[in-house]
C-alpha cells in the first residue's frame, strides 16, 4: 500500500498489533450480526475494504496480464468464501473457538507433504484440540458453527496456496487490493437476498468502515510491512498466537467465557501450530485469516 511505508513500527510489534486489530474487528462484526446478519456484515466489510484499498493502492487494472488475472481471481474468491464462512461460524460459536478451529487450515498447509515422524505430534495435538470442543464431548458448542469454522479453515488453506501463486506474479499490496474486488462475489448474493442493506443507517455504515479498517486494511498493511524484514518462520510463529488473542478478545469485548476444556483446545492448537512452524522446512505465512 502506498501508505504502509509510513507505518514506522518494528516488525514484531506490527504483527502483534495486526493480531489485536483483527480480533477487535471480529468483535465489531459480532455486534453487527443481530442487525445485518453474517452475510450482510461480510458483504459490508469486504465491499468497504475493497473501496479503501483501491483508493490507497490505485491499481492499474487495465495493465494486468492474463496470467495475473488467472491467479488473482481465484485468490480473491477464496478470500471471500473464507471470510463469509468464518462470520457464519462466529454467529454461532465464541470468537476464540471460531479462530482456533479455523487455524486447522494453515496448520494443515504447514504439515502438508511432511515426511517427519515428529510432525505426527502436531497433528495429534490439533486433533485433540478439535475433539475437546466437538459437540460429542459435551462442550455445548453449536455443531453447525463448528462446521462453518472447519470450512473456513479449509478455505484459509486454499487461500494460502493461491496466495503464494498470486504473489509470484503480483506484488503483495496489489494482489490484496485486486483480490478484494473478487472477494465480494461469493457473499454478495447472500447479502442482497438477506435484505440487510435496507436497514443500513449512518451509524451502521460507520461501524462498517471501522470493521473494514480493523479487519482488513490495517492488518494487511502491517503484515505486508512486517514480512519485508521478518523471517517467514518468525512471522508464522507470531501468527500462531491468534487463537489466544481471539479468546482473550472474546472475553474482554464480548463477555464470552471459555471452559477449561475449551482453553485446553485453544492451547493445543496454538502449540501444534507453533511446533509445526518450527519443525517444517518451509512454513507458510497465514495472512488475513479472518
Automatic annotation (TrEMBL):
Topology term for the membrane: Multi-pass membrane protein
Main localization of the protein described in the UniProt heading: membrane
All residue ranges annotated as the EamA domain in the record: 144-274
Protein's UniProt keywords contain Transmembrane helix: yes
InterPro entries cross-referenced by the UniProt entry: AA-Vitamin_Transporters, EamA_dom, EmrE-like
Similarity comment: family membership: Belongs to the EamA transporter family.
Full protein name: Threonine transporter RhtB
SUPFAM superfamilies: Multidrug resistance efflux transporter EmrE
Organism from which the protein derives: Hymenobacter frigidus
TM spans (from-to): 7-29, 35-57, 69-87, 93-113, 120-138, 144-162, 174-198, 204-222, 234-254, 260-278
Keywords: Membrane, Transmembrane, Transmembrane helix
Subcellular location: Membrane
Amino acid at each position: 500500500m502506498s501508505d504502509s511505508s509510513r507505518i514506522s513500527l518494528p516488525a514484531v510489534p506490527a504483527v502483534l498489533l495486526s493480531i489485536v486489530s483483527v480480533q477487535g474487528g471480529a468483535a465489531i462484526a459480532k455486534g453487527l450480526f443481530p442487525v445485518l446478519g453474517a452475510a450482510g456484515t461480510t458483504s459490508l466489510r469486504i465491499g468497504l475494504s475493497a473501496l479503501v484499498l483501491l483508493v490507497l493502492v490505485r491499481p492499474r487494472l487495465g495493465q494486468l496480464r492474463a496470467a495475473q488475472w488467472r491467479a488473482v481471481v481465484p485468490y480473491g474468491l477464496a478470500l471471500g468464501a473464507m471470510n463469509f464462512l468464518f462470520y457464519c461460524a462466529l454467529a454461532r460459536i465464541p470468537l476464540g473457538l471460531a479462530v482456533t478451529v479455523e487455524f486447522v487450515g494453515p496448520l494443515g498447509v504447514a504439515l502438508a507433504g511432511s515426511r517427519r515422524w515428529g510432525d505426527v505430534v502436531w497433528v495429534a495435538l490439533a486433533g485433540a484440540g478439535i475433539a475437546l470442543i466437538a459437540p460429542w464431548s459435551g462442550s455445548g458448542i453449536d455443531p453447525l458453527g463448528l462446521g462453518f469454522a472447519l470450512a473456513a479453515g479449509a478455505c484459509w488453506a486454499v487461500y494460502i496456496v493461491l496466495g503464494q501463486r498470486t504473489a509470484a506474479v503480483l506484488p503483495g499490496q496489489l494482489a490484496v487490493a485486486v483480490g478484494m474486488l473478487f472477494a465480494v462475489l461469493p457473499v454478495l448474493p447472500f447479502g442482497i437476498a438477506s435484505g440487510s442493506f435496507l436497514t443500513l443507517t449512518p451509524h451502521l455504515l460507520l461501524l462498517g468502515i471501522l470493521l473494514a479498517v480493523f479487519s482488513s486494511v490495517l492488518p494487511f498493511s502491517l503484515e505486508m510491512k512486517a514480512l519485508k524484514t521478518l523471517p517467514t518462520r518468525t512471522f508464522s510463529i507470531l501468527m500462531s498466537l491468534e487463537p489466544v488473542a481471539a479468546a482473550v478478545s472474546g472475553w474482554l469485548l464480548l463477555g464470552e467465557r471459555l471452559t477449561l476444556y475449551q482453553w485446553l483446545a485453544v492451547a493445543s492448537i496454538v502449540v501444534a501450530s507453533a511446533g509445526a512452524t518450527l519443525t517444517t522446512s518451509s512454513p507458510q505465512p497465514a495472512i488475513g485469516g479472518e
